[in-house]
Amino acid sequence: xxxxxxxxxxxWSVSQWMNARDDITLESLRGSVVALHAFxxxxxxxxxxxxxxxxxxxxxxxxxxxxxxxxxxxxxxxEAMGPVALAAFLSEYRLGFPVAVDQPxxxxxxxxxxxxxxxxxxxxxxxIDKTGHIRLHHFGQLDDLRVGAVIGQLLTEPFG
Amino acid sequence: xxxxxxxxxxxWSVSQWMNARDDITLESLRGSVVALHAFxxxxxxxxxxxxxxxxxxxxxxxxxxxxxxxxxxxxxxxEAMGPVALAAFLSEYRLGFPVAVDQPxxxxxxxxxxxxxxxxxxxxxxxIDKTGHIRLHHFGQLDDLRVGAVIGQLLTEPFG
Amino acid sequence: xxxxxxxxxxxWSVSQWMNARDDITLESLRGSVVALHAFxxxxxxxxxxxxxxxxxxxxxxxxxxxxxxxxxxxxxxxEAMGPVALAAFLSEYRLGFPVAVDQPxxxxxxxxxxxxxxxxxxxxxxxIDKTGHIRLHHFGQLDDLRVGAVIGQLLTEPFG
Amino acid sequence: xxxxxxxxxxxWSVSQWMNARDDITLESLRGSVVALHAFxxxxxxxxxxxxxxxxxxxxxxxxxxxxxxxxxxxxxxxEAMGPVALAAFLSEYRLGFPVAVDQPxxxxxxxxxxxxxxxxxxxxxxxIDKTGHIRLHHFGQLDDLRVGAVIGQLLTEPFG
Lengths: 160, 160, 160, 160
Prior knowledge:
Largest interface: A-B, 19 and 19 residues
Order of helices and strands of chain A: EEHEHEHEEH
Structural class of chain A: alpha/beta
Mean pLDDT of chain A: 96
Oligomer: homotetramer
Strand content of chain A: 15-25%
CATH class of the domain at 14-121 in chain A: Alpha Beta
Radius of gyration of chain A: 15 Å
Low-confidence stretches of chain A: none
CATH topology of the domain at 14-121 in chain A: Glutaredoxin
């Protein structure tokens, strides 16, 4: 492995954090594997598959080793998925990990972090290694075995 | 069976209909079995169980024999589940049957139809016979076999 | 409904009963709805769908109203699915209802009851009404709502 | 990691191989991660969970990197799970990976490989690293994320 071969994960543009005492920068997570789970609260595939997988990752690994971060990247039905609605959703679905509201763009429906990562839709899972590089970027459903295998590999990599 | 033994289903108080050309009164459905499915769009049990069951009922029986009616009975997180959000939800989850927005009460969080039926929460399934009487009233999850059995029985009953 | 329109269910040819103190004839079940579930213990669709459905029917209805009868109709891999293997299977999978071993034919792989009912394979569900007539005959997977609806209808029919 | 800390995986005692052209020794698999899946064909937890997981591992990873080996470790109902029955089972359930029949013991119900590994029952999953050491030994159900993570870690380890 040669880390320089992997794309550096862009910084996050966040209008609001939920389930978090303070803002969380990607930079502050160096040394941990980061599972960035982009979703929309009214996206059926996110609710049936993506969010349960993010919760499972959160449950399966020590929180200092694997950091699960939700990213609410609203690109449709904006009026139905504002922060108040999201707060109700997080409470009802009992998401225990921090969730960032992806910063809306000045123009167009696609929020800024979604743009920076070139995401095609939701759910999208991005796995970022300890040094801040993107190692998996998947739109849609990806089975737990494959996701687990990448996480397991990234956990073995040295840091610092 | 003696129909007078069963409670007459109360009329519906509806602030808005979706997926319907015109308002639908319970009275206009006499002669059909009615499956009234009360839900909230952000209620996890509704999304994982109640709504799929309502869709399955809609798919399994001829629409003139069994009428499936959704009832959006919001009693919590009102600000997150208004009509605009509900319209987005119906579109995303592809609900094909009419959905009534339960009329909010002048006071208190429980909407009027939910009050009139004495519902304890969501999801609630109410099966109403051809003459407008309540034959099943279930809060929570009820397996398809038992639901099907009641529908099958009600379908055999004479009308008119 | 005119009962003469329905085919009379053939008698069962049984080489051995399991989970039953005495032999059970179809005739002795008059007055009950009978759910005859034909299966093979090594048929994946039977194990994943048919048997769970038969167990669910057994659990959902009073045993004197709906009698669930398993029928082990072996038409392939005969050497792997003899009575000793079946007994182990019934114990492991905790089938609580009576199971009849379908009588092997003198010639050919298809056992006698399977032949008499014209079954195409396993799993097959046959619903027989209180007067001994076939009201549903389904090869493969049939959803619980539809199965429940037929059972519910048959339960309402008069007997005697 | 210090490989000497891990128990060396015992050799397999096999009375018969299925789905394999030749006998397969554990030693011959050095350099690959080995997923040894011990099951009984009439064990419900094996059929519902263990075997699907083994098939998923077989599908998710390149066969030269991760070798999936089934081990039919019969310790009960021996008369129902002989080689003829197993062959029917493998055909019906479409297991595509090699399956070893665990060598019955001269005395007692527990076959030899099951004894050597100290397995408590079925299903049991054993993950063996490239150098032949046991890295995971789990009786019962273990979620795909955790299994995947161990496999992912083992894949990164050097060999030779």
